[in-house]
Amino acid sequence: MLPTAQGICSRMQLNNLLQRLFSSTVGPQWSGPWRDPAALSTGIAIVRKVLQENAHASPHGWRTHEIYSLALKEKAPDGFQSAVKTHNGQAKPPHLEHPIRSKSFLKEILAHMRGYRDVKIVREVRESSSTSAKHHQHATFVWKLVDKSKLPKPQAPYIRTPSLGVPLGVHEDFSHLNRRRQRARKEKIVREILKLKEKRKLAAAQASESTTTTEAAPGP
């Protein structure tokens, strides 16, 4: 029995649908930076380099397309090869041979650099570049380098002085002893702590007396 025209069309539609679903779910997506770590690390190095070299020329920051133009002027490292693979029907990035293959990938790089505190995004008021006599101002967001020397320094870790009772066994487990021995052990620890405190007070008093005597002694 020969297949009808309706059956052939339904099979073709089913095959086309399966191909679209397979390519959209299984095919690699070139926009994700985590799928191409080599391009991500190299792109961060390129962007950091061009921003540092052009910091004095653009003190008011850069728009994303300005950074994109500067970055594309840098040559890709020798032997660089993107891990991205495109399938038939997928749109290819405009510069697949370069670590910064598209403007959307540059935005991912800038987001990573913002997390590293290399750059920040700020709101600036600029004048329009129209040739008319009137100058119009408009607000825009630009990227700027972060001066890490002005960032707050992390606080030094607080080192707590151990208590006097730690070497004497304050935090030891006495549950294996009976009540009488537990009480005796605790009383002994308390007595030892009081003795240590008295010794420290006496040593501090003697040190202060010797310092006072030295200061009061007449000079030669």
Topology:
Elements: H1 5-25, H2 37-53, H3 64-72, H4 103-115, E1 119-127, E2 137-145, H5 179-216
Helix pairs in contact: 2-4
Based on the coordinates given, report the CATH architecture of the largest domain. Orthogonal Bundle
Describe the strand arrangement of the main beta sheet, using strand numbers: 1-2
**Residue runs with pLDDT of under 50 for 5 or more positions:** 22-31
How large a portion of the residues is in β-strands, by DSSP E?
5-15%
Q: What's the gyration radius in Å? A: 36 Å
For the termini, the CA-CA separation is: 128 Å
CATH topology name of the largest domain: Arc Repressor Mutant, subunit A
Order of helices and strands: HHHHEEH
| Arithmetic mean of pLDDT | 78
The helical percent reads: 40-55%
For the largest beta-sheet, the strand count, sense and barrel status come to: 2 strands, antiparallel
- Enumerate how many helices there are, as a single number: 5
Q: Please tell me what the overall shape is.
A: elongated
The tally of domains stands at 2
CATH class label of the largest domain = Mainly Alpha
Q: Which structural class fits the helix and strand makeup?
A: mainly alpha
Strand count = 2
